[in-house]
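Listing S7. Sequence submitted for prediction.
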Amino acid sequence: MAEVEKKEKKKQYDFKEFTTCEATLMMLQKAAEDGVETAFHRAADMKACPIGAESACCKHCAMGPCRLNPRDPYSKVGVCGATIDTIQSRNFARMVASGSASHTDHGMTMLDVFRGVVEGHIKDYQIKDEVKLREVAESVGISVDGKDTITIARELYNELEKTYTQVEGEIPFAKRVPPKTLEIWRKYGLVPRGAMREIMEIMHRSHMGVDQDYQNIIIQCGRAALADGWGGSMVATEISDILFGTPKPLVAAVNMGNLKEDHVNIIVHGHEPNLFESMIDSANDPVLLEEARAAGAAGIQLLGMCCSGAEVLSRHGVPHAGNFMSTELVITTGAVDAMAVDVQCIMQALPSLARCYGTRFFTTNPRCKIEGVEHIELHEHNPRECTDKIVRMAIERFKNARPEKIVIPQRRDLGVHGFSHEYINYMLGGTFRASYKPLNDNIINGRIRGVAGVVGCTNPRVRQDYVHVELVKELIKNNVLVVQTGCSQIALAKAGLMKPDAAVLAGDGLAEVCETVGMPPVLGLGSCVDNSRILVACSEMVRTGGLGNSIADLPVAGAAPEWMSEKAVAIGHYFVCSGVYTVFGVTFPIVKGTKFHKLLTEGLAEMGLGKWDFVEDPYEMARKMIAHIDERRRALGIMGPRERKLFDMADRRALETV
């Protein structure tokens, strides 16, 4: 254990304050016995800077850093004269820029792979969903009549490339935005041109001595964020569906109990699906399976972590070992033979912890290397060269370097995953009458109060999974249908809320709909980049009719209860700019009472957009989200009493016997 720094004085922790996850709790106790520390320990020992936490610090030039007083924000200015509103808006802008760059770069990677497939240079991946290809092409104005698959794909690539490179005009997926919402964007100059231009401009504007009007800066924040949500993220999701298949509901398991002591256990952690798709092929290769058996293993067990795990959980039912804050703890089981990572949410502490337990750890993406870690780069034209090597090194570790003590928490939680816009459309209306009309009708008649997106990370500054779970229980109890992505989805799956029988925890109206359709009250939509599925669903609700003319009219709300990354700020802002009331937990990097705070929490809504809010307590968060949903219902004139109950098959049989 010498690789991990130890404290001179052993500090005592109450691990139950760190997490609600039984498996993580068990591994925290084992980590303590083994003398290793994790992000939970570091967060407990390292207090957040109170000035930085509220974004009252500017370090964008060498005249600073300039620290303003969050309790008296207008008492002084920075060395250059920058006010608290300029400082906060610049800091916020750079978070949006970084977060948007992460997802748009992910999307561009997927588009590059798509181009390679279309041009025939990449053979290991193919177009698996031709129906989705045609639908996406038509949605951006490409005629598909009489054209073969490759022609359509080539035209789609050329159109979607504009998402990144275009310097004037509007990004292609702006065609999917409800006309009223698009009209508001055009009025305020919010429609993104191309992601590269918007992110470049936001970085320029937030440089010292450039844009010093917080209201002007927030417009550019909106363009950059929307270039993520309706651009890079949407491209990533749609191209992944086209290449690897659009998810459909399936039963899959989460948690550390999916590790198998008699198997070679390999975890893939990150965000880009191409690595994982090739790992699936390698782990199922008969030659490599025979090598694993020759080493004494019963087989090869592949598991996901974080968002790439959520993608293959949804597409293929590959088990998921845990969300972000369980990443270190799964290694402490001793059962992980190899962990391969690509990009995003990769803790630098993982390699040293892996060395403590003999786990082989590899980086695979040129964007994410870690000092002292073996790098096996994935090249899409020959991905198996990378993934086969990782599997063989995992087999070698299983045979020669496993620790004597292996502890696997025996906890596996089953749930239904793999919902998408396309499947929800089919689920509600069937093959010949696919439509969101049943959803809209049940919102109008009051059985479903509204829809909430509860998404995002887990954060060691709060008790792992607690806010996610308690918030969602409160929402479904009040007849709010919940959709989820990312680490939040895993938190809810561990709590048993992703199963149809969780409808017993829902209010009478939502429970009736769930029982009639046969769905859970919480629908898992995939990884954090798949938040774009929620945007598409909102647009479809508007298009279907009866719930207003813009996304801002809908009885919907969003929340990131345990957010921790800049990506979350970009996601939150593209939802706000799309018209959604969005609540963050844990912390919010804005000083309350400033003009910039008022702009985010009130001014944007006055422009016809959504608005930001910050609440730490899950029950207060639910109350405010429900209050907003009810406010939207009143504005739509649908706050009357709920109609009679839906008739299920048992009701019909009872009628027939009378």
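Caption to Listing S7: primary sequence and predicted structure tokens for the chain studied. Residues 84-119 form the longest helix (36 residues). Residues 1-9 have pLDDT under 50 and may be disordered.
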